[in-house]
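User: tokens in, sequence out, please.
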């Protein structure tokens, strides 16, 4: 009996494979547990369509991430902090401040987990570089310029 495996079955088949198995194995184990379905043209088409839809969705997310990285890469955000004449800074710039500035300036919504600050907060006047991480292969480098008020 030809079956289409919906899930990986160790030492038998991987998801998406079509194999010929004994009818008893298919009826008593694979079908009840939802591991496989009998291969019919409609089942095969439904499975292939689902795989294609998931792949298209994954590619779309990847393209969205790369578009955001292209938009933010090598850009600059400017902040102003109060500081003493000796250079001591009052306050600091955190992830929330950076997220709000990116939202206002570029209309991109990020979360704290996307912002990689070198020391947790920026507490110095001058330039600092941060990374915006949107995945393993999608990372933007931004310059944060802090001016004295």
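Assistant: Sequence out:
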């Amino acid at each position: 009996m030809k079956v289409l495996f919906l899930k990986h079955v160790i030492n038998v088949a991987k998801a998406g494979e079509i194999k010929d198995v004994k009818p008893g194995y298919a009826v008593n184990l694979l079908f009840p547990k939802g591991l496989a379905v009998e291969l019919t043209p409609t089942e095969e088409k439904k499975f292939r369509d689902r795989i294609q839809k998931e792949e298209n969705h994954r590619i779309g997310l990847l393209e969205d991430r790369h578009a955001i990285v292209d938009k933010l890469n090598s850009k600059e955000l400017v902040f102003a902090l109060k500081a003493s004449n000796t250079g001591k800074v009052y306050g600091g710039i955190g992830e929330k401040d950076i997220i709000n500035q990116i939202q206002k300036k570029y209309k991109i919504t990020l979360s704290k987990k996307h912002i990689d600050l070198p020391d947790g907060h920026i507490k110095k006047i001058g330039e600092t570089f941060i990374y915006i991480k949107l995945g393993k292969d999608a990372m933007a480098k931004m310059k944060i310029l802090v001016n004295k008020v």
